[in-house]
Amino acid sequence: MKKLDIAQELSSNAYPGRGIVIGKSDCGKYAVTAYFIMGRSVNSRNRVFVEDGDGIRTQAFDPSKLEDPHLIIYAPVRVLGNKLIVTNGDQTDTIYELMDRQQTFEQSLRTREFEDDAPNYTPRISGILHFEDGSFNYAMSILKSANGNPDSCQRYTFSFTNPIAGEGRFIHTYMGDGNPLPSFEGEPKLVGISGNIDEFTDMLWTNLNEDNKVSLFVRYVNLETGAVETRIINKNK
Asked: Closest by alpha carbon to 199, among 77, 25, 59?
């Protein structure tokens, strides 16, 4: 698979929707994850990321303008022991709760489907990082309709062991703008990961579409010490 330039992937797509990046820094010292949200409607754009314990949650920037919290207010990132969960919806809680009862990532997601936002039927994308003995592995999932037909839910899980330094995977909800929005296709894209957390964060934010971007979360986890660095950028300030 050809390694793609994530800056180019973002700058050439006006509306990838919501996206997850997971991989390893080019220096090999850090597990890297990022999550961003975009919006076309006033309701979707009226959001910010805020820290919530070891994770984050979305909240309305201006509560008086919040029209419908369904599908837009949730906890994208939670930590369960030595696992970091990141998703584009309230399936974060499903994964957390069922894995806490000894179910697997994949088993947890069998209880969920794509979002009920006809006619888009937005895919649910999820990722999990598992840390152990100075290393990590990760998995990503997408739950999507059958080419826009909600009668069938198609489930795909991709697992990555022994991640390569300077490489990651990128999955997002939409192939681009449209009506209805076209769902992501194929396996998570192979992308390069470079720079420290501030450089990587700035690159992602700069290349997201200026009109549609809403919030960005980036986390670097030191594989030797377990120390965590987090960056959050909100367009609404």
From this structure: 25
